[in-house]
Amino acid sequence: MKTGSDSDVDVSCASWRLGVEAHNLINWQTVPLKCQEYIASYLLDGQYRSDSKTVCREAYFYAKKLNLTNRDIFIFDVDETLLSNLPYFANHGFGVEPHNKTAFSKWVASGEAFALPETLKLYNKILSLGIKVVFLSERRLDQKDVLVKNLKDAGYPTWEKLIVRDPASFGGDDTFEYKSAERVKLVGSGYRIIGNIGDQWSDIVGRYKGFRTFKLPNPLYYS
Amino acid sequence: MKTGSDSDVDVSCASWRLGVEAHNLINWQTVPLKCQEYIASYLLDGQYRSDSKTVCREAYFYAKKLNLTNRDIFIFDVDETLLSNLPYFANHGFGVEPHNKTAFSKWVASGEAFALPETLKLYNKILSLGIKVVFLSERRLDQKDVLVKNLKDAGYPTWEKLIVRDPASFGGDDTFEYKSAERVKLVGSGYRIIGNIGDQWSDIVGRYKGFRTFKLPNPLYYS
Question: Which fold has domain B4-215?
Answer without folding.
Answer: Rossmann fold (3.40.50)
